[in-house]
Amino acid sequence: MSTFKKTGVSNLELHVATGTYYARIKTDGNTIRKALGTNRAAAITAKDKWVESIRGKKSKVEGTLGSCVELYHKWLGEQLKLKEISERTHEYKMSLLPAIRKTWQPFDLVSIADLTKTSIRGFQLAMVTDYGATRVNGAMTVLREVFDRAVEANMLSRAQRDELLEDLKFVKVDLDYKRRLSKLPCHADLLLLKAEVEKRCKNKGEAGFWLFNFLLLSGCRVDSARHLLWTDVDFTRNEIYFRTAKYGPYSIPMFPELKELLEQRKALFGGNSEERVLPTKTLQSVLTASCKQLGLPHLSHHDLRHLFATRCIESGKDFVTVAAWLGHKDNGRTVMAVYGHLRREHSQREAASMTFLPKIEPKNVNEPQNEPQKATS
Q1: pLDDT band at 377 (very low <50, low <70, confident <90, very high)
Q2: What confidence score (pLDDT) does residue 327 get?
Q3: Are residues 115 and 162 in contact, defined by beta-carbon separation less than 8 angstroms?
Q4: Measured between alpha carbons, how far is 339 from 335 in angstroms, rounded to an integer?
Q5: How much is the mean pLDDT over the chain?
Q6: E strands, 229-282, where?
Q7: How far apart are alpha carbons 194 and 211 in whole angstroms?
Q8: CATH number at residue 125
Q9: Closest Cα partner for 157 from 59, 26, 67?
Q10: What is the number of domains present in the chain?
Q11: Do 217 and 321 reside in the same domain of the chain?
Q12: CA-to-CA distance for 195 and 189, rounded, in angstroms?
């Protein structure tokens, strides 16, 4: 049984054992309480005065979440110039803002004064419904940083910010790869998904299906694909060089289907050495819509990388080789940890048809035996 229980009044809790009311507030990440006696009405009055003494009076500076995002854009740019964050981090955080706006509508028009813990909890629940845990956690971080800009602009006090974000928790990232990989589409569903993505992209006049096919056939991360230039594609040596990668630059051979894809791309659109091979930065919205249309589990850009690795393992490629193709620097340890069960399942299937000593059917004793031949002189 918990020590304190809610009373239905904001910032007021009841100590179960003693019946004493406590004011409660969170500031700078710390929860503080003040005993207010056992009289509920008196406690409510005292609570309001105590909270105001800590928070101060509400700011007269008005603003919306949209205006806070403008401040956030400026701040993020300053962080990049000061080298507090990398260009990759800057791009990643900027890419999360459209997802936040799409999930919390009308985000830009929401007044700071109208924010409540309930509305923020509702936003997080909607994010968890539509996106994976990693992306949800990224969005939570960005939202916290947006609220920090509101504090700097005197639209919120620190105590108000802390109270509003009190229930905004990071989502546990599911690392059960065996279960996650089991949700990847089978070959037939993957072909349907590929066709659906291409149809939707062409209907919108977008080139996202090139990115889809490239991620699926190369196994690279989406950030590596975004930064790939034609100068990094060497048809003579049959290699692709990823200069931007999580664990440092790496190269992969041009697998036949991947080479065919790039040759088609170059033939249709040309390829100056310093131009990007894939102009599309993201196809997540199309991918999500396509999965819903086909009744498939939600897939992300990174799941296409999982599909690539899964296909490699199921085709019998060794862990060290697959790790090199994924840009890992650990000689296959991560690949073994993530995809090892696939090799075991494949091994069990192969073992079922393995025979060391084939059985020899015994002869039927009732069958007539051939008479031995007489020796000739």
Answers
A1: very low
A2: 94
A3: no
A4: 6
A5: 86
A6: 233-234, 239-242, 250-253
A7: 11
A8: 1.10.150
A9: 59
A10: 3
A11: yes
A12: 10
Distance, CA of 64 to CA of 102 (rounded, Å): 16
Count of CB atoms situated within 10 Å of the CB of 119: 12
- In the block, tokens 């060089």 appear at 241
CATH number, domain with residue 50: 3.30.160
Taking a C-beta distance cutoff of 8 angstroms, is the pair 134, 175 a contact?
Answer: no
Helix (H) or strand (E) holding 100: helix 87-103
Sign of the four-CA dihedral 62, 63, 68, 74 = negative
- Can you tell me which residue has the tokens 């020796």? 375
Does 309 lie in the same domain as 207?
Answer: yes
For residues 320 and 342, membership in a common domain is answered with yes
Contact assessment for residue 155 and residue 61, using Cβ atoms and an 8 Å cutoff: yes
- Classify residue 67 by burial, with Cβ atoms within 10 Å: 0-12, 13-18, 19+: middle
Helices (H) then strands (E): counts for the chain: 15, 7
Gap between the Cα atoms of 289 and 142, Å rounded: 24
Is residue 240, in this structure, part of any structural domain at all? yes
Inside any domain, residue 357 = no
Q: Which of residues 133, 164, 195 is at a domain's end?
A: 164
pLDDT, tens only, 158-179:
878 888 888 888 888 766 677 7
Tell whether 362 is covered by a domain.
Answer: no
pTM above 0.85, yes or no: no
Asked if 188 and 326 sit in the same domain, the reply is yes
| Cα-based distances in Å from 201 to 194, 205, 214, 217, 258 | 11, 6, 15, 18, 20
**Residue 243 shares a structural domain with residue 148:** no
Enclosing H/E stretch for 148: helix 133-152
Six token digits for residue 174: 């599911």
Shared domain for 47 and 78, answered yes or no, is no
Domain assignment present for 233? yes
Residue 44 belongs to domain spanning: 4-55
Percent helix, percent strand, percent coil in the chain, to nearest 5: 55, 10, 35
Checking if the pLDDT of 267 tops 70, the result is yes
The span from the CA of 344 to the CA of 107, in Å, is 48
In angstroms, the CA 198 to CA 352 distance is 39
Name the token pair of 247: 């664990």
Measured distance CA(29)–CA(190) in Å, rounded: 46
Q: Are residues 13 and 156 in the same domain?
A: no
Are 104 and 155 contained in the same domain? yes
* Cα 218 to Cα 6, 307, 326, 330, 345, distances in angstroms: 54, 10, 8, 19, 24
